Amino acid sequence: MRLLVIDDAPVSRAHFEHVAHAAGHAVVASVDRFDAAMEYAVEGDYDVAFLDGRLPGDAPGDACETLAARVRALCVAVPERPVVVIAAIDEVDLIRAARVAGAAGALMRPVSRSGLDTLLAMLVEASDERAGAP
Question: Residue 54: which CATH number?
Fold first, then answer.
């Protein structure tokens, strides 16, 4: 699959790219700002967007609301491509806010090959079910 990664930390983006490549996927774009992600989302060629649950400039009290708005913006801009939030396992409120806003799922940090493989398999299965495939 072709993946769009939105994460402000260069080390996290590099790790994600390494894990994705090892699993046979390609990170076709890796950006550190949401505005750059929106530009790529509309014009770029990818299958799934992975969005860091916390990007710079997020106020602690507004993190859930900010993330939900970002998820909604991506889902509206490109409704046929799923959005997955990347979060720490204890960020339950962020994950819940993202899911309510339309995120297709969550990938826990640290990103692992098994976690990525499982999540992408679930997304493919859900897509097949929506398309009526057996």
Answer: 3.40.50.2300
